[in-house]
Amino acid sequence: MTAYYNELDPKAAAWLRELIKNGHISYGDVDERSIEDVTPNELREYTQCHFFAGIGGWSLALRLAGWPDDRPVWTGSCPCQSFSAAGKGAGFADERHLWPAWFHLINQCRPSVVFGEQVGAAIGHGWLDLVQADMEAADYSVGAVCVPAAGVGAPHIRDRLWFVADANGRNARAEWEQSCGEQRQQSEDSRTCDLDDTERTGLEGHRPDQGQGGRIGEARPVTEASALDFWADLKWIECSDGKARPTQPGTFPLANGVSERVVKLRGYGNAIVPQVAAEIIKSYMEHTS
After folding, report:
1. Residues 261, 252: contact at Cβ < 8 Å?
2. Any residues with CB less than 8 A from the CB of 229 and at least 6 apart, and which?
3. What are the distances in angstroms from CA 248 to CA 11, 155, 238, 251, 279?
4. What Rg value do the Cα atoms of the chain yield, rounded?
5. Closest by alpha carbon to 187, among 210, 159, 161, 207?
6. For 2-53, how does the pLDDT look when each residue is reduced to its tens digit (9 = 90+)?
7. What is the mean pLDDT of the chain?
């Protein structure tokens, strides 16, 4: 029951190995090659496969959702730079548009369930249209929804596009999308998903008791307490620009001089919010049981 993690960044790959060693994510092998160099036959022995694995957010999300380590699944968060304003905005012409490479492996190995994530701005580039067309042509049922981190109580927005593809056509797509959409609507921090993502991912605002902008810290309870409790003890740091920014107790701003600052920034910045992914996974499980 070994998992496979594909991650090109050697620093993130080393981080993954430490998380595996300490039991925080599913036991498995870490492959630092480009996904374009991976062949289908190399993957057939693995129970779970995580592509563009980052620091293992999908594996953690599966555990949070109650998905056993020995239950087959594939996950992936394709690089967003092709579609985000943080990159060149070249869309499908960008060499970091790696959905075709991932889809090739999916189509050859035929995993029963695939979960994926991308920045909302990709919708405007036709990324979701391509994913749905490819997967449905391969006889998968596909559902997609936009849910922000604020939808599970996080003190920031970080709006993302989430999708699930089911090889057996049992995913009750309309019900699943409606269920996930309710999480979004119950959060006053949600935004339309096709806007430029870079304007909505910052951990900043005013504290809830400061009036204007306070909603950043007032995400409405829309999930079980276990998800909301993760941010229940956040601390607000007053900054020189007059804003307050939330942090977890015991953490510190990643300022100049902090050891491995760039590695941490890249790891956290590219990671999914596992608590959101867990809600997506749990909703899928409820509608396919």
Report:
1. no
2. none
3. 23, 11, 14, 6, 21
4. 19
5. 159
6. 999 999 999 999 999 999 999 999 999 999 999 999 999 999 999 999 999 9
7. 75
